[in-house]
Amino acid sequence: MPSLSYVAAVNRALRDEMARDERVCVLGEDVSQGITGLTKGLADVYGTGRVVDMPLSEQAFTSLATGAAIAGQRPVVEFQIPSLLYLVFEQIANQAHKFSLMTGGQASVPVTYLFPGSGSRSGMAGQHSDHPYSLLAHVGVKTAVPATPSDAYGLLLSAIREPDPVAVFAPTLLMGASEEIDDGDLAAVPLGSARVCREGTDVTVVAVGHLVPIALQVAAALAGEASIEVIDPRTVYPVDWETLGKSITRTGRLVVIDDSNRMCGFGSEIAATAVEEFGLTVPPMRLSRPDGAVIPYALNLDHALLPDAGGLVGAIRAVLR
Amino acid sequence: MRLIREFEEHCLEKALAGTIVGGIHPYIGQEAVAVGVSAHLRADDVITSTHRGHGHVLAKGADPKRALAELYGASTGLNRGRGGSMHAADVGLGIYGANGIVGAGAPIAVGAAWAARRAGHDDRVAVAFFGDGALSQGVVLEAFNMAALWSLPVLFVCENNGYATSLPVDRGLAGDPVRRAAGFGLTAAAVDGMDVEAVAEAAGQAVAACRTGAGPHFLECATYRFHGHHTVEHLMGTKYRDDDEVAGARARDPLTRQRARLAPEAADEVDAEIAALIAEAEAFASSSPGSDPRDALDYLYAGTVPARPGA
Ligand SMILES: Cc1ncc(C[n+]2csc(CCOP(=O)(O)OP(=O)(O)O)c2C)c(N)n1
């Protein structure tokens, strides 16, 4: 079976959507060269009028995309570094996201924000290692964190077709991943639809992004000990509460593992809702980065702050006890 | 100009009475800018506006009845009561909204101009209105750069009313606005923003040049706001302008100057027409229904979001 890499999947999604819809265009730094790999070759096919290299003006080009979207285009904005989200939070959270409500539904802002290489980047230190998807979920921007190449393809397709702003985070640790899949099996993945990656009856593990394959490894390793259901929410906003609720209500036990900061993070939200609504039989467990974590440079310090397989094993055993 | 003036006088009264919540940022004194520029705009041209946006929105053609209803939070308002004074918009008329964040509209206007070019509407113009304070916002300068780089049909209109809230322009802005814009490659000029004919003349040239592909333009309009920054300002007891200064500006009232150029009967006719419009707007707005609180988050998304458990 042919193998599809994560980066190629994103590239393929952009290529296919640009072919399908003339209004789709790609804006970002070095996109005509495809420095991050995501946009490689697109300018050769669609020209630099649609794959547009931006000056180093993130705030302006983020809002340029807003204006263009209101005027009928469907821009995809690529950010070279996920922490640039802090620079353009105004433009996304305060301008694009609020436009539809503030104008009483006169227009919406169909922009897609792509954040490749999100999460710890091994030695890239404080300003290049954040994984800030929880922030966008908090303000209500539709946000996907695909865990596989086919999901990267399918979620990006849906993001571009969505009438609202949508952010897509591509985790660093998955950028090199690949998957055996036939081209014909690639399809749009609806936002707000979780994937049950492994069925189980004793405990539900909700894992985000690059932690999905780790959760699957742990579930396989603990198979003799417990039957573990692994769920990938795929979008952190909106959350597929129906799929999560069914699983958690059935198993009565929950562990959430996500690579954002603990305080007000995605994991907290899943755990709280599970407690309120899903009839847990034991208190839930959360694995995440610590409160307000800033990733240090030294690799052992960097790794020490990230949720990992060992921690997940411990948490699963704790809720099973 | 008379419509904006009367609309705003009416709003001032209603803001102080509490009918308009949140107060307003009065545009009174600056009318010549919105009117002089908008005189050259078509319905398919785009504008982005400021927190002081009533003048721009009305000059671009928004219905005063629905504009007032918006300020009253009514469901018949321009934004169905979801935007209020600082976000008034009529996207169908190219009004991409007033904006509560200083300078935020400039790159949105650049995006609209860029999109128009992509869609083949080469003669469509986008106008970004902003104050002197916005010239210190990085995003505005980024927008200058991009518009100039791609020679986009954007007219940047800086309404220099001398103050950013209480900060005098000479304590907030280094250098000269026109030279600053010219430094980015914009065709830049300054004009007396208290004279509607002068603004119309300069804006006419700039808009026409934009339509024929001459690239972005910048117009600094020297103007003055007669009232405080915001309607609650007087409650704070702040005073940063002396009375003589305000009186001097009022002596150059753009409405008085324009009236002197018109036949008295014509001016009286306009006044009567506007008075009727305002009365009509008040009747419409004050009798319009509000919205059901259960619908408070309607229009947040154009697409769908599944309900949360327990919601
Ligand atoms: C980015 C930003 N900073 C501060 C504020 C608070 N604020 C609102 S209006 C204003 C002054 C703006 O001055 P100017 O751009 O000259 O416009 P004017 O009020 O004179 O029309 C300030 C500081 C804001 N809304 N946005």
From TrEMBL, chain A:
Species for this entry: Catenuloplanes nepalensis
Protein name per Swiss-Prot or TrEMBL: Pyruvate dehydrogenase E1 component beta subunit
Repressor recorded as keyword: no
Cited Gene3D superfamilies: 3.40.50.920, 3.40.50.970
Keyword Oxidoreductase: yes
InterPro entries in the record: THDP-binding, Transketo_C/PFOR_II, Transketolase-like_Pyr-bd, Transketolase_C
EC number: 1.2.4.1
GO MF terms, alphabetically ordered: pyruvate dehydrogenase (acetyl-transferring) activity
SUPFAM superfamilies recorded: Thiamin diphosphate-binding fold (THDP-binding), TK C-terminal domain-like
Co-factor requirement: thiamine diphosphate
Domain Transketolase-like pyrimidine-binding, residue spans: 4-177
Pfam family, any one: Transketolase_C
Domain of life assignment: Bacteria
Keywords, sorted A to Z: Oxidoreductase, Pyruvate, Thiamine pyrophosphate
